[in-house]
Structures are given as structure tokens and as C-alpha cells.
Amino acid sequence: MKIAVVTGASSGMGREFVRQIGFFYRNLDEIWVFARRKERLERLRNECRVPLRVFDGDLLKKQVYRQYSSELKEKNPDIRMLVNAA
């Protein structure tokens, strides 16, 4: 599974990166998005051509980090792009 990972995806540069990645890199299977505002991430799903996997919360919080770590171990994705916009 080929993915992109974007932090700070609910607004500003992070949000725009997600929109552009979805437009220009259609060969990705998913974009994994991180932000504290889940409702904004859910709205972003409708604007993106690539499926999103939403991780709501701050990566500095253990619960969010554990969820991300678990998904990485389970899915073993091929991370093609990493955008730290948070």
C-alpha cells in the first residue's frame, strides 16, 4: 500500500498539501492525515480524490501515537511522502 502522511492537515499548508497530493499523485492508495480537529478532516475527505485515513488528535499524545504506530505495524505501508505541516 502506497501512502502519503500529512500532519497539520485540517488547515493552511497541510490542508492544501492534502488537496494537491490527491490531485497530482493519484497512484497513492491512501493519504494518512493528522490534526486535532476531526470535523475538518472529515470535510476534507470530500475534496480529495485519494481515500483518507483520519487520525484525530495530537501526535504528542500517547493514545494518538499508539494508534498510528499500530496502523503502521498492521498495514506496513510504503510511505511515499511525508509532510510535517503541524
Automatic annotation (TrEMBL):
<protein>
    <submittedName>
        <fullName>SDR family NAD(P)-dependent oxidoreductase</fullName>
    </submittedName>
</protein>
<dbReference type="InterPro" id="IPR036291">
    <property type="entry name" value="NAD(P)-bd_dom_sf"/>
</dbReference>
<dbReference type="InterPro" id="IPR002347">
    <property type="entry name" value="SDR_fam"/>
</dbReference>
<dbReference type="Pfam" id="PF00106">
    <property type="entry name" value="adh_short"/>
</dbReference>
